[in-house]
Specification:
Helix content: 25-40%
CATH class: Alpha Beta
Number of domains: 1
Strand content: 25-35%
Strand order of the largest sheet: 2-3-4-5-7
Largest sheet: 5 strands, mixed, barrel
CATH architecture: Alpha-Beta Barrel
Shape: globular
Number of helices: 6
Structural class: alpha/beta
Number of strands: 7
Amino acid sequence: MKEIKITTPLDTEILCNLKTGDKVLISGTVYTARDAAHKRMIEMLGRGEELPFDIKGQIIYYVGPTPPKPGKIIGSAGPTTSTRMDAYTPELLALGLKGMIGKGLRSQAVKDAISKYKGVYFSGVGGAAAIISKSIVSAQVIAFEDLGPEAIRELVVKDFPAVVVNDCYGRDLYIEGKKQFLNQ
């Protein structure tokens, strides 16, 4: 299967061409945020404040990178478990978030919101954090610096490898893959 190259910000037309199981190479700007940063973003919205970045068409990567070694842009940057962000994700999708990168299953509420708002959930390659970090061209903290590794960072990535897990049509790679395996 060939890899599909996509560039951020994402638009609905591009997303609607992606399907569960597609391998993608992502280039452009991606934002990092884990559960503590998600909680703060939702609190900001509740107070009527703007988010630290324009979320429309963007991808959030669920990662808490390690400090960079001397001469490196970023340390190890592997995906974290996505379910911790599930309580916050539907609201962010409603605001225009188009993609998320993480690992593991998503709740039905998140999968429904992905379909409703035409988004996509990608899986990063777990266990290959050092390899993934080679796709990161630049990294800078843009919000919540006090959260350390969980601060929001703006990453510029080139050919960041991921797989479509949940597409905008409601398909789920984990469910489809399991069925395919059991039917053999």
